[in-house]
Amino acid sequence: MAENSNQQPLLEFLSELETSFALSVPVCLNFVPSFLMEMQNGLVQHLSNEHLQMLASHVTTRPTGSEQGKCLSMDLGGTNFRICLYDFDQSKYPTSGYFILKRQKYLISNSVKTNGLLIDWMAYCTLQFLNDYYVDLQDLETETSSSSAPSNSNSDSKETFRCGLTFSFPIKQSSISSGILQSWTKGFQGPEIVGKDIVSLFQQKLDEKGANIKIVAITNDTVSLLVASGYFNQSSQMSIIIGTGNNGCYWESLHNVKKLGHEAPESTKGKEMVINIEWGAFDNSNAIIPLSKFDKSLHDSSPTPGFQKLEKMISGLYIGEIVRIILEDLVSSGLIFSESSLISPTVFSPYALDTEVVSKILSFPFTENKRFPLAESNSVEDFTRLGSLETLREIIKSNIYSDPSDLELYVIYRVCSVVTFRAMILCSLAASSVLLKRPDVLSLDHSPVPRIIGIEGSVYNNIPGFSSVLSFVVNNVVKAHIIAQKNQNKITSNNQTIITPFNVFETFELDNLLTDPTSASEKSKQLVNFNFVDGGCILGTAILALIA
């Protein structure tokens, strides 16, 4: 247990930690124009992965919601490889418009991520999926037909499935059915695949195994999510993944994508294309966002030091690791966990502390009526009065330390909060910037139709307060910029406030962002709604398989 004599040093550590992770109002105000400038640069020229690459997805058709047919959809993410067989038919499935005939999830082991055999493994999983499907189908036909009826499930009758592939890594595309891998993220490695067409490699392996599949579309998970969001709501303008990785995409006017030149499809000139921003690379030059010593430690030990700076501050792959690095520092300083034999190996093992554990820790003492969990626990005393600590204690005992004191519970809770709160603000600023890239689709008119941001991911869904902070900050930052441009108002420049969980909603009030007061009607208008699309990544890819 931590002794009482450690309380003051621990509180001083927390204060220094919060300062090193803090974002001030000036930093936030500088974020948006800098992000917009990088977006513009990426639209006019092909950039390396040190910048926002603004990759052309070649998705130029918005879904209508009336798509029809059977197709396969595959999603290679940071943790799992998922395969689904869809049947789209509005007349058969009037509620959703589709039915999933079969689904399977395959865990991607660390060895598969790094041994150079990823494509072979994907083909093996796919063949196993199809074989299982036909066995199930044959069993069903046997059950529903008379014993004398002939079976039609032999190999000659197997249909060829159109297939869409979500490949959640930076790819360069010259068409919807080709994708050159630019670089690995999310801890994957394999230089022998970088620079090659993923569709060609995968199709070759499938053909070799006799799989009756034709890959007709490849896309990024964020692009696929936007397609899925648009299937349900035509006003979907952008999408965000906040899970193992973090990224955004949006519909851009095709004439703004100058770097395409002659590559731009003639039939779609003057229309739209989904742009995959790959925003995890923002501020790799360290010009905007301050970097703590713990961030530097994470970068130094990662496969891509100095790259994917924004992603390493927001995504689920790294949130747990940053928390772990901080706890390890506290242990080495002798400030917590006096009994070394009671410390879990998780504290000393890179990437062993899962962000899911961080989410569980932050679930205490969050309740529905609090917009952010720390809002009423600014001290150890406040924290211990909020309710029983036993659930939280069990989480810590199971994952971090076997005999935590109340003070240690409070410290761990505050560490998790500091790391996740910064992620919330940075993700909010990135989303705001993307929306402001297309001011023509935003309106503060009398009856505006809110734009939809399709969103998916465990970090957004599981970390308390993420959704409320994101919605509030995005709506107010975007409104502030639109009002400033429309009314010749100015974004405030003399507010030096450090943004914390305790002042976030006050700081991002419109009247605190603008030099002149705003009207009640402008304050009340909702410009943006967030739509969580469960399974959206793999659904959107299925839709693309039908419309590509």
TrEMBL record:
Coiled coil: none
GO molecular function, one term: fructokinase activity
EC number: 2.7.1.-
GO biological process, one term: glycolytic process
CDD domains associated with the record: ASKHA_NBD_HK_fungi (cd24018)
Hexokinase C-terminal domain: residues covered: 238-479
Entry's Gene Ontology cellular component terms: cytosol; mitochondrion
Annotated InterPro entries: ATPase_NBD, Hexokinase, Hexokinase_C, Hexokinase_N
Pathway: Carbohydrate metabolism; hexose metabolism; Carbohydrate degradation; glycolysis; D-glyceraldehyde 3-phosphate and glycerone phosphate from D-glucose: step 1/4
Family: Belongs to the hexokinase family.
Protein name according to UniProt: Phosphotransferase
